[in-house]
Design brief:
Strand order of the largest sheet: 8-7-6-3-9-10
Distance between the termini: 193 Å
Helix content: 55-70%
Structural class: alpha/beta
Number of domains: 4
Shape: extended
CATH architecture of the largest domain: 2-Layer Sandwich
Radius of gyration: 54 Å
CATH class of the largest domain: Alpha Beta
Number of strands: 11
Number of helices: 19
Largest sheet: 6 strands, mixed
Oligomer: single chain
């Protein structure tokens, strides 16, 4: 019996295994996503165990567990990555947000995480944890056919140029570039001494080739000027400091550069001319002697369209030295200039690493010395031979190859129009400046500018003279007004004095009248009392009559007299008595 049971079980296992093998042939042809979904669905419905479903559909047991758990929570079964906390409808909202975003405003990863947490909050699922950067990675993996993560560039570096302008520039100057010896093909540019800015990671559609984002500027400003040759060599760089005098710098650092200074640390016409005359021209002469070339051998200097290039005196000097100054097309230096396509990128990345470790001083002078020491170390890495040669090849200048540039993402198939640069007078973009026509045009424009300046100065002088005349007339009118006001004040003072004198005279008259009344009363009293002394009374009466007659005549004369022009002294009672007895009205005989 035991033997029969074993045979039966073995036969059943054989039948099951053979049946599963036949089914596995059809199952293995199914895609992984469909196998995982069917296995998870069978486990969720309770038809199979997780181990049996994983074995039958050739998926991992953990994947089946996550799929069944997702179906239990009402979510879709994930293909790759961790647990998806958002439902598929909610992820579609985020995908639409990314697809419809402005090319200059693609959302960052942090913004996507914040929007996802808001969607969870609207769904009222407090048990779901907050989203993290791990969820962000799984989100990108699940939707790798729709979105991707990339580093956004600065908006200032994004420039679009048409294929017609690039083709025209190569048509005009390809012969000059191809005939020039690579040991005499030079590129010059200046850059700011600062570490490379950290890129901003954004989420963009999968079809996007380039992302743009606003980046803040750096505060420090030291300008580095560099010459490189197409054969992979270079000249010791020049530095422009925002100082008028040379600061104290270690000797090792000072010997590695040639130095200049300006008010803000920017390159100017005089500084550019000084660098050309003291650095480039001696190097070109030395190379011609070293390589056995004649002075007639042409040398090509490729530069951008900075305003310091349009200097007639400098261009004449370069023409005498058989150096052709070739400018790039407008808004094309980021794709046609070798220094901007490899050399400065290596410099900034190396400087960033050295800066983080070695720049830690607090004082300004020590900090500057540390920065310049880090710059020397960074230049050793950036100015390697193969880096420079790759930069010239990438820009299509050496060897000459325009197809490299025409396939660049910044080059558009649409036709663009070259507009003249404002403020310079002569358009210098994409032209050879060391020819007689360009030099004569620049000289004429300079003469016109000088005439305009003279006219402006003459207008300013006339305006200043008119302003001076107006000021003088205003001052004269003010002086006349002040004089009239002073006269009015003097008249008012005289009137006030006359009024005060009239008041004093009226007061003196009232006092004299009061005295005469008091005397009359005393006379009447003496008459009533002195009947016995008739002689004395008669004498006193005669004197009183004489006094009263004289006072009446004096008072009458004073009433008809005019007011005096000069101010009198105040008339007190004692002064009146003194004037009366010592005046003309009474003599010694009458007394």
């Amino acid at each position: 019996m035991m033997a029969l049971s074993k045979l039966r079980t073995n036969s059943l296992k054989f039948r099951v295994i053979s049946r599963m093998d036949k089914e596995n042939e059809s199952i293995t042809n199914m895609p992984y996503e469909l196998r995982l979904k069917t296995a998870s669905q069978l486990v969720y419905e309770g038809k199979l165990s997780m181990g049996a479903a994983a074995l039958m559909y050739h998926v991992s047991k953990s994947a089946v567990y996550r799929g069944a758990h997702a179906l239990n929570e009402g979510r879709d079964v994930g293909v790759i990555g961790g647990i998806s906390y958002l439902r598929r409808e909610q992820e579609e909202v985020l995908l639409n947000r990314i697809a419809t975003a402005d090319p200059t405003l693609f959302p960052t990863k942090a913004e996507i995480i914040n929007e996802g947490t808001k969607l969870i909050a609207l769904d009222h699922r407090p048990s779901v944890p907050t989203l993290s950067h791990g969820w962000m990675k799984s989100f990108l993996k699940r939707n790798n056919d729709k979105v991707k993560g990339m580093v956004a560039e600065s908006m200032e570096s994004v420039r679009i140029i048409g294929q017609n302008i690039i083709s025209k520039w190569f048509d005009n100057h390809s012969d000059l570039l191809s005939q020039c010896d690579k040991r005499m093909l030079i590129n010059f540019d200046e850059t700011m001494v600062a570490p490379s800015k950290r890129g901003c990671s954004v989420v963009a559609p999968s079809s996007t080739k380039r992302a743009v984002r606003r980046v803040l500027k750096h505060d420090e400003h030291i300008t580095l000027c560099q010459f490189i040759f197409a054969d992979g060599t270079s000249i010791p760089p020049s530095l422009i400091l925002p100082l008028k005098t040379m600061p104290q710098i270690p000797q090792e650092v000072a010997e590695g550069f040639s130095w200049s200074g300006s008010a803000k640390g920017w390159i100017t016409d005089d500084i550019f001319q000084k660098i050309i005359e003291t650095v480039l021209i001696p190097e070109v002469k030395r190379r011609r002697q070293h390589f056995g070339q004649d002075e007639s051998c042409r040398c090509v200097l490729v530069v951008d369209n900075h305003g310091s290039r349009s200097n007639p005196s400098l261009l004449q000097r370069l023409q005498q030295e058989n150096i052709d100054l070739l400018t790039l097309p407008a808004h094309a230096s980021h794709i046609l200039q070798p220094l901007d396509n490899g050399v400065f990128a290596q410099l900034k990345s190396a400087l960033k690493n050295f800066w983080a470790v070695h720049v830690n001083a607090t004082t300004k002078g020590e900090r500057r010395a540390q920065i310049l020491q880090c710059l020397l170390w960074s230049l050793e890495l950036a100015l390697r031979k193969y880096v420079i040669q790759c930069a010239f090849a990438k820009t299509g200048l050496c060897p000459v190859n325009r197809s490299v540039i025409l396939s660049h993402p910044s080059v558009s198939e649409l036709m663009t129009i070259e507009l003249p640069a404002k403020g310079r007078g002569v358009c210098i973009a994409g032209r050879v400046l060391t020819n007689d026509e360009m030099i004569n045009e620049m000289k004429e424009k300079e003469k016109e500018k000088e005439k305009k300046k003279k006219k402006k100065k003459g207008k300013k002088k006339k305006e200043s003279e008119s302003i001076v005349c107006e000021d003088q007339s205003q001052s004269q009118s003010k002086s006349e007004e002040s004089e009239s006001e002073s006269e009015n004040e003097s008249e008012n003072e005289s009137e006030s004095e006359s009024e005060s004198e009239s008041k004093s005279e009226s007061e003196s008259e009232s006092e004299s009248e009061s005295e005469s009344e008091s005397e009359r009363e005393s006379e009447s009293e003496s008459e009533s009392e002195g009947e016995s002394g008739n002689e004395k009374a008669n004498e006193s009466k005669n004197e009183d009559e004489c006094d009263s007659a004289k006072r009446q005549t004096r008072d009458g004369d004073d009433c008809h007299q005019e007011l005096p022009q000069k101010r009198r002294r105040r008339q007190t009672p004692s002064r009146l008595l003194h004037d009366y007895y010592m005046g003309d009205g009474c003599t010694d005989e009458s007394n």
